[in-house]
Write a structure and sequence with these properties.
The N and C termini lie far apart (about 65 Å). By secondary structure, the protein is mostly helical.
Length: about 450
């Protein structure tokens, strides 16, 4: 179990929080990049160094937390976690798909011309699924950052430990390693404002905006939906089902979400998310003997499933259909939901060309997807981190029996969420009708 060490309380009233310092670093970096332009492009090197420092503890954390988490359980508890965790994951996926297709209603009714017309799909390298998921050589998987294979290996070892009689002699070793990794990660996280400054300065100094004008429909819709999900939909879901105050949910994971957004990488905040989950449950007095083990299992395992960040890629596919005037019927949208969910178990860069081709959308739209990824990628990383947070908290509470299905709170949440989504769609449609120029005639 990863130990939590509370922050010192000395001078708390005058010291800036970590997230505040991160925002200062982010703002200062953007201003520096816009002012100095290409002169600060080399700061990207320091940003890359910071991201790699954050990654130091991630794979070791996955191994020790999964082995210790499963090893500490009884077989019956492990089965219960698998069943209830899967139900929570399916519910999150279903809600995410509803949000994505509802947001697509915001696209304006324009007679769009097909600017892209290459019908042939791009050749993409297919991943070796056996190599990705089967740890034939765990050292090869570790050195090549094959996270699913590492997770599967760790689960095998952890489940095997469940039935080992003298496992209590080895579990403290993994607990000690986890505590050491938590200390390392905590020290590196304190460097986040400086790393974010370097990343933001380099990005703002080198980013071009020529492509943004014609794809603002997708960008504005994606960012609006991402912000609504982050600041209401999923924190509100946790609050409605757990009884934990909304502010407590959002406040606890503020630093992790900001770091994921600023770095564009949810992988590096896994240890931070695990600590935050335990802190939240402990502060709300919802922790018990199973809580810490469940968090240590769910956090690394959930990284391997399609997250909110990946599922919002489906919004681009619906945008691509709108942009190229490709008609999508109800059957096409249902097929997109299922095909998209399963194809997103792999790489996004493989899934998107496949989905475009399956719906007969010109393959050249994939180039536009790569361009827009510069802007929306950080929001996607933040949503992926939020997905892990929600799944970890709700999955842990489902295992321990802490979920509270209070119908008044659930109904109030559903009404507010529906109203917020409809308001967002209506406002976006009005904005697009006013500010998105009509495309030229097809002959032009």
């Amino acid at each position: 179990m990863i130990c939590y060490h509370p922050r010192p309380t000395t001078n708390d009233s005058i010291a800036m929080t970590l997230s505040a310092r991160i925002f200062v670093g982010l703002g200062a970096g953007i201003v520096t990049g816009l002012f100095f332009g290409e002169l600060v492009a080399d700061l990207k090197l320091f940003g890359d160094i910071f991201v790699k420092l954050l990654q130091i503890t991630v794979l070791p954390y996955i191994i020790v937390s999964l082995i210790a988490g499963f090893g500490r359980m009884q077989m019956q508890q492990a089965r219960r976690l698998a069943v209830r965790g899967s139900l929570v994951l399916l519910a999150i996926w279903a809600l995410a798909l509803v949000l994505v297709f509802t947001a697509g209603l915001a696209f304006p009714d324009l007679d769009t011309a097909s600017f892209f017309g290459s019908p042939a799909p791009e050749e993409t390298e297919q991943p070796d699924l056996f190599e990705l998921y089967l740890p034939a050589n765990i050292f090869y998987s570790l050195s090549n950052n094959l996270v699913p294979a590492v997770v599967l290996f760790s689960i095998f070892v952890g489940v095997a430990l469940i039935t080992v009689e003298d496992k209590h002699t080895i579990l403290p070793v993994f607990d000690g390693l986890a505590a050491a990794l938590a200390r390392i990660n905590g020290a590196i996280v304190q460097l986040t404002p400086y790393g974010i400054f370097a990343i933001a300065a380099a990005a703002a100094g080198t980013m071009t905006v020529e492509e943004l004008g014609r794809v603002q429909v997708y960008l504005v819709t994606y960012i609006s939906l991402a912000l609504l999900i982050t600041f209401w939909v999923f924190p509100g879901l946790v609050a409605a089902l757990s009884g934990i105050p909304f502010r407590a949910v959002l406040g606890t994971f503020r630093d992790a979400l900001v770091t994921a957004f600023a770095t564009g990488n949810q992988f590096v905040v896994l240890p931070q998310i695990a600590e935050n989950c335990k802190e939240l449950l402990r502060r709300q007095r919802l922790d018990d003997g199973e809580t810490a083990s469940a968090v240590d299992i769910i956090v690394p395992v959930s990284f391997n499933f399609p997250s909110l960040g990946k599922l919002l890629v489906l919004l681009f596919v619906t945008f691509a259909a709108w942009f190229t005037d490709t008609e999508l019927g109800t059957g096409d949208r249902i097929a997109l939901a299922f095909n998209g969910l399963f194809s997103l178990f792999g790489s996004i860069n493989v899934a998107v060309p496949y989905l475009l081709d399956s719906l007969r959308i010109p393959a050249d739209m994939f180039q536009l997807f790569m361009v827009t990824g510069i802007v929306v990628g950080r929001f996607g990383a933040m949503l992926a981190a939020l997905h892990i947070i929600v799944l970890s908290v709700l999955g842990t509470l489902a295992l321990s029996g802490g979920l509270q299905l209070r119908w008044p709170a659930v109904l109030r949440y559903l009404v507010l969420t529906s109203a917020a989504m409809l308001t967002m769609v209506a406002c976006l449609r009005i904005y697009f009708q006013l500010f998105v120029p009509e495309p030229p005639a097809r002959e032009e």
